[in-house]
Amino acid sequence: MATFLYRLGRLAFRKRWYVVLVWVAVLAGVGFGAAKAPAVPDDGFSMPGTESQRAFDLLDQRFPSSAADGAVARIVFVAPHGQQVTATANRSAIEKVVDEVAGGTQVARAVSPFSGQAVSKDASTAYATVTYTVKSDDLTDASKRTLRDAAERARNAGLTVEIGGSALTTRPAAGGAGEMIGVAIAAVVLLITFGSLAAAGLPLLTAIIGVGVGVAAIMALGSAFGLSSTTTTLATMLGLAVGIDYAVFIVSRYREERTRGHAPQEAAGLAAGTAGSSVVFAGLTVVIALAGLSVVGVPTLTKMGLAAAGTVAVAMLVALTLVPALLGLFQRAVLPRAARRGAGTVDGGRPGGGARWARLVLRHPLPVLVLAVLGLGMIAVPVMDLRLGTSGDEAKPTSTTERRAYDDLALGFGPGFNGPLTVVVDTTGAGDPKAAVNTVIEKIGATQGVVSISTARFNAAGDTAVFSVIPAAGPSDKKTKDIVHTIRAERPAIASASGLTYEVTGTTAVNIDMAQKVQGALVPYLAVVVGLAFLLLLVVFRSVLVPVKAAFGFLLSVLAALGAVVAVFQWGWLAGLLGVAQSGPIMSLMPIFMVGIVFGLAMDYEVFLVARMREAYVHGVPAGEAVVAGFRYSARVVVAAALIMMAVFSGFIGSGEAVIKMVGFGLTTAVLLDAFVVRMTIVPAVLALLGDRAWWMPRWLHRVLPRVDVEGSALGRLPSPRAVPDDTAGLLSVPVR
């Protein structure tokens, strides 16, 4: 591996202009494909094997004129204080709104509050439900404008009008100010770390090219493979983070080899053979973790994981080819200031901050280890109260009409009104379908916790009925979850009495099914990802205990990060500071999402940091000093890489979308804890306690495992290349003064 990458790095350095042109051509090609491709689809969500999905499929089949997942607008009317919506003037204004909206070309059905039993008991609040034939992303501007204009006319009549549902919901576009701020912070970190404008700019340039290729490819293939727009956001987030980090690793090693006296081309080859090997295996762990999301069984999540894994793979290729090529164009400009001034090699004997920290940990390994583990354990405590769900309009800021509509409905009809359950009854074979459905409604209506049930609506063929069940508690309340389970558990008895069976679905039921599916998949997913990564690290480090330590360290960091997420987004700690409008359950996919991404990113630091320790150890350095050597050469770069990732991820915390804000905060916290507590503190403490045993491996296993030489020991046996003078840098190199 090291030899192959060494030769690849030298080749890319030597043929630098060809390599640059190839990547520019690739970027232009996929960019052209993305521009000509149809727009990416919306985030259609399906969960095969769940009851809620079976019910949706039945609705699609039996109600073809109105898609089960079509956009819905709920127009909420609140009468002025002391008045009622049933007053003649108010009623007339409401009916005009419904009639105007019902005439839209994309409207499947518009139900007036007065014909659909949608008036509160005190007649202060009413709502009209508008169902569209298309999904929210496919609604035309004309349909949305009609909805808004009709609501505005009712406001002019004196009513308070808000619009909930999915019809007017807008999804934040991928990219934006948050990401730009993150990239700007990353640039500052790089400039401070390297002290060179060229060295700081090169990782940013290559990361942007890698993300451009990856995202453009997703957009070009989005329509064919059903890759949603959310996939682009995830790919951008990860592509920027790992793309910058991988380039930083290689540029840093190139600078180190140059200060040791190697010629530019040889330094580029050595950087690719050593740091490049770490990049390959670190990248493979990220790819494994992301591809492993397919274990969950949610098609959308599988596509997101595979697309993001492809973007990471592109980032690896860019780091291994384009970075050495650009080093050929900026041979001296990327060097430290002292080297550019001709000061010669840099003295490596003086310990830096990383080496001093490592020696401090090595002097007190047990107290440091105990303190770090206890600290992470305390942060992880809130995980014990983790409640999974999906935040809806209640999590949006009060400045949005969706949130105000949610609050008005909860006040007028009760908290459970915002989380109705949809019951789909298959009446095929029933002698008297209406009587049988009424029996089902009567039995479900007697369930404790059910407030009301709507009138059943039949399809044109008369073989399917649909009605809504309003629970007493809110959609994210545990009592509502219990009601769903109770209604489903009553199915055999109700089917026996009515002769019909039914399925329970709706947004609330979907969220409950999703949470159960994720919880059931979490352990298998962890086993697959951690198992494969363990085998990979076993091959890389040729040690049994180092991969075990890496896996346990990761579990500590991800649990602590999840604990922080629960404390902020579920308990409400510091919620106001972070702009969290409403605390509530944690997004169902968040735990497994964080496990996959954080595991891959955590292994970046593990591989790069421990590989330098392994490199020193196999060259005869004692175990303790090998730890110090690893920190001397890697700590500064690992810290910079972690700060860069945190900067990129934290840019998403400012998003107005609760889910993106949660993901940004969770990943930022995870990188902070993993890089600075686990990798920089727990790792040296454990290795100090283990000593030479850390690198132990049974002889039979040593013989069986393939040799990959990530530490680059084979490079020392290569024939010495002819020195390449610095003046091959061309016009873009910085001359020695």
Low-confidence stretches: 344-349, 722-737
Number of domains: 4
Strand content: 5-15%
Radius of gyration: 30 Å
By DSSP, the count of extended strands is 11
CATH third-tier fold name of the largest domain: Multidrug efflux transporter AcrB transmembrane fold
Helix content: 55-70%
The overall average pLDDT, rounded, is 83
CATH evolutionary superfamily of the largest domain:
Multidrug efflux transporter AcrB transmembrane domain
The secondary-structure class comes to: alpha+beta
CATH architecture of the largest domain: Up-down Bundle
Tell me briefly what this model is.
The chain is an alpha+beta fold.
Task: Supply the key terms.
Alpha-Beta Plaits; alpha+beta; 24 helices; 737 residues; Multidrug efflux transporter AcrB transmembrane fold
Explain what this protein looks like in three dimensions:
The protein has helices spanning 2-14, 16-36, 51-62, 88-102, 141-156, 177-194, 197-225, 229-259, 264-291, 299-329, 337-340, 353-363, 365-380, 401-413, 433-445, 478-489, 491-498, 507-541, 545-570, 575-578, 590-618, 623-650, 658-690, 699-704, and strands at 72-78, 107-111, 125-132, 160-165, 388-389, 421-426, 450-453, 457-458, 464-471, 501-505, 586-587. The chain folds into four domains: 1-36 and 176-342, Multidrug efflux transporter AcrB transmembrane domain (Multidrug efflux transporter AcrB transmembrane fold, Up-down Bundle), CATH 1.20.1640.10; 71-165, Multidrug efflux transporter AcrB pore domain (Alpha-Beta Plaits), CATH 3.30.70; 360-397 and 521-713, Multidrug efflux transporter AcrB transmembrane domain (Multidrug efflux transporter AcrB transmembrane fold, Up-down Bundle); 421-505, 2-Layer Sandwich (Alpha-Beta Plaits). Strands 6, 7, 8, 9 and 10 form a five-stranded antiparallel sheet that branches. The model is unreliable at 344-349 and 722-737 (pLDDT under 50). The chain is α+β, with helices and mostly antiparallel strands. It contains 24 helices and eleven strands. A hairpin with a 5-residue loop joins strand 8 and strand 9 (464-471). 54% of the residues are buried.
